[in-house]
Amino acid sequence: MEKKLHQFSKAFLPCGIFSLAIIVFGIVGLVTRGINFGIDFKPGLIEEIRIAPAAAELTYNGTAKVTVDAYKTGVDFVISGTGAENETKSYSFAEYATVKDLVNAINVNGVKAVLKTDGSEESYKIFLNSAVTTVLSKNPLYLYAGNEDVSVDSVREALASLEGISVKALGKDGFQIRMAASEDETNQNLQNSVTDTLASEFGAEKIAIIKTDFIGSNFSKTLARKSVVLLLVTVLLIWVYAAFRFHWDFALGAIIALLHDAMIMFTFIVWTRMEFTTTVLAAVLTIVGYSINDTVVILDRVRSNLRLKKVDSFNELLDRSLSDTLGRSIITTVTTMFAVISLYVFTTGSIKDFALALLVGLVSGCYSSLFISSGFISLFRKNWKQEYGIHHSLKNDVGVLQMDAGVTV
Prior knowledge:
It contains nine helices and 13 strands.
């Protein structure tokens, strides 16, 4: 039984004009307002921190220079300078299983090691604060082990007074903090503002900075350029695939639909002032891949109907093919939207933006596959004429299939 024929071709021109108006609106917004780049594309600070009680403290009263290095396998005390022979004393975690065992074993002249907890923590979990010097003095150097039970939401609330900041949990290894910098801010100022804010909330002795990186303006601009190149290369590769599988005009129609979807998403991003981060970029690339899948299904049906259907015009062929695949297009889009809506409702932060961008892209992708891609293919083949040659009739359980050996594809 043949499906109901919908006159999609009548909407090709109105839809093309409507889409063009939205894209022009987006370009105007891009020129006048620009993209609200997130901290992924801005210069700033990336810092990994852990919040943990100090397990032990080390002090030194002497004339030599004593430096502490903590590794995955143990702790070294490097002794040099005046009043001491140059030597290194190593304490292996395999030999001293707990912090208490390690502290009791430390035997360096002038070094005093004091437990701050009961010392039951496993010694291999020991780490240092990279933001402070590891040269021992009368001021205590803290050894940390493990983590305090602090949620990522608590850290976000503590840093809420700072602008342009993002916090991500790193499992049991603490938190990653990203903070955008203004032109007159330095790395040290950013780091101090984060450390001081956390110290006032959780206590200075509990804040340990594991790693600090500063993204310069040149790097952030390079990342933005690479993101544009990534999108263009993705579209180019899809065009190569579509051109190999279908005719060149089919491939071009598919690429126009992909570019249409990307520009519609950017129009939405520009005018809603959504923060453009690498997560939102991932949503754009996801839609590019999703949209081509829907378009390929439709083009495959068009190619099949070119051989199987006798029609008076190419628009009629497109109408038949789109009618055949309409149910599939709607069902796959709607079922995917259910999952994306759940992400949008039940998440926060960058994942919520990711889900919202996906929702816009899903609607645009379904729409462009039906009207934009097909509309351009119709334009390319406006003078198309079907050629008829020798026909063969094959009877099967479904009915009669007429095959045209002389059809031009």
